[in-house]
Design goal:
The protein is an alpha/beta fold. Helix content is 40%, strand content 17%. It has nine helices and ten strands. The chain is elongated, with a radius of gyration of 26 Å.
Length: 303
C-alpha cells in the first residue's frame, strides 16, 4: 500500500483495549461439541495465549514457564482427544497446584439432543465413537467419564441455548472487559479506487477543495495551511461532527456484535487534501475516546 501508516498515541489515562478481570491461567475442558473452539477464540480476543489440545505431560512444564513470564494470560484447551486425559488429569492438575499455579477449570457442556444435532450438522464423528455405536451412546459415555472432572470445575457453562455471539458475550462478561474495536482509518483518492478492506466509507468531496488554491495544491491535509483553509468553512465542522455522531452510535453496536477490527475510509478526489484532513480529525477524537487507531494515508504521495 502506498502512503503513510502510523499508530496514533492514546492518552495515558484512557483505558486499555482489553483488561483481564478474572483468572489468568484457565484450563478449558468439557464435552465434545459443547463449544470449546468458540470459547478459545473468545479467550484469544481477550488477550490470552491459547493452546489447543496440549499434551497433559507438558502441562507442568507450561505451568513453570507461565510462572516465569510476568503478566501473561493463558487458556489451555484439553479434552478427550488427548490420550490419557481422564486417567492423568487429576494428577497433573494437583501438580500444578503444588508448584504454586492456580489453574481455573472451566467446563463446557450441552444437552444430549443439542450435541447430537451439532455432530449431525458438522458430519464429524464423535471422538469416542466405536464401530457401529449410536451417537447418543458415545455422548452419554463421554458425559459419564467426564463427571469427576466436572465436579471439580470452578465454572460450568451449558451452551445448549447460546448462539456464537451470545456465548462470546458471556465469556467476555465473565473473564474480561468488553474489547474496544480496533480501528484502521484510511484516507484515499476515488480516482485510484476505494480500499477493498473498507467496512465504512465516507465521501468528503463535498468539502471545498484546496487543490484549486495555487498555494495549497502541492501541500497535503497534514499541513497547517490546508487545515486552516478547510476549517475556515463552517460546513467542514458540521460534516466532521455528523460523522463523529454516527460513529459514536455505530461503534458500540459493532462491538456488541463481536466485531473486533473495523476499517473506516475517507475519500476525496485525489486522496491528498480533504480525505487526509478528515481522517486525521476523526482519528484524533476516537483516540481520545479510548480506541486503538491506526492511521493510513494511502494516496498522500501519489502524483
Amino acid at each position: 500500500m502506498r502512503g503513510r501508516t502510523r499508530k496514533t498515541a492514546r492518552p495515558a489515562s484512557s483505558p486499555t483495549r482489553l483488561e483481564s478481570i478474572g483468572p489468568e491461567f484457565v484450563v478449558v475442558t468439557g464435552l465434545s461439541g459443547s463449544g470449546k473452539s468458540q470459547v478459545q477464540k473468545c479467550f484469544e480476543d481477550l488477550g490470552f495465549f491459547c493452546i489447543d489440545n496440549l499434551p497433559l505431560q507438558l502441562l507442568p512444564a507450561w505451568g513453570r514457564l507461565w510462572k516465569s513470564l510476568k503478566e501473561m494470560k493463558t487458556a489451555l484447551i484439553i479434552d478427550v482427544r488427548e490420550r490419557g486425559f481422564l486417567k492423568e488429569f487429576g494428577t497433573v492438575y494437583r501438580d500444578l497446584q503444588r508448584m504454586g499455579v492456580k489453574p481455573y477449570l472451566l467446563f463446557l457442556e450441552s444437552d444430549d439432543a443439542v450435541l447430537a444435532r451439532r455432530f449431525s450438522e458438522t458430519r464429524r464423528p464423535h471422538p469416542l465413537s466405536r464401530k457401529g455405536e449410536l451417537l447418543s451412546r458415545s455422548i452419554g459415555r463421554e458425559r459419564r467419564m467426564l463427571q469427576p472432572i466436572r465436579a471439580h470445575a470452578d465454572d460450568v457453562i451449558n451452551t445448549s441455548h447460546n448462539t456464537v455471539h451470545q456465548l462470546r458475550k458471556l465469556i467476555f462478561e465473565k473473564y474480561g472487559k468488553r474489547p474496544r474495536c480496533l480501528l484502521a482509518i484510511c484516507s484515499f483518492g476515488f480516482k485510484r479506487g476505494i480500499p477493498p478492506e473498507s467496512d465504512l466509507v465516507f465521501d468528503v468531496r463535498m468539502l471545498p477543495n484546496p487543490f484549486f488554491t495555487a498555494s495549497l495544491r502541492g501541500r497535503t491535509g497534514l499541513d497547517a495551511s490546508v487545515v486552516r483553509f478547510l476549517r475556515s468553512f463552517s460546513e467542514t465542522g458540521r460534516v466532521r461532527e455528523k460523522i463523529l455522531d454516527l460513529l459514536k452510535f455505530l461503534l458500540p453496536l459493532y462491538v456488541e456484535e463481536g466485531k473486533s477490527y473495523l476499517t473506516i475510509s475517507f475519500g476525496c478526489t485525489g486522496g491528498r487534501h480533504r480525505s487526509v484532513f478528515m481522517a486525521e480529525q476523526v482519528g484524533r477524537v476516537l483516540t481520545r475516546e479510548g480506541f486503538d487507531v491506526t492511521m493510513t494515508h494511502r494516496d498522500i504521495n501519489a502524483e
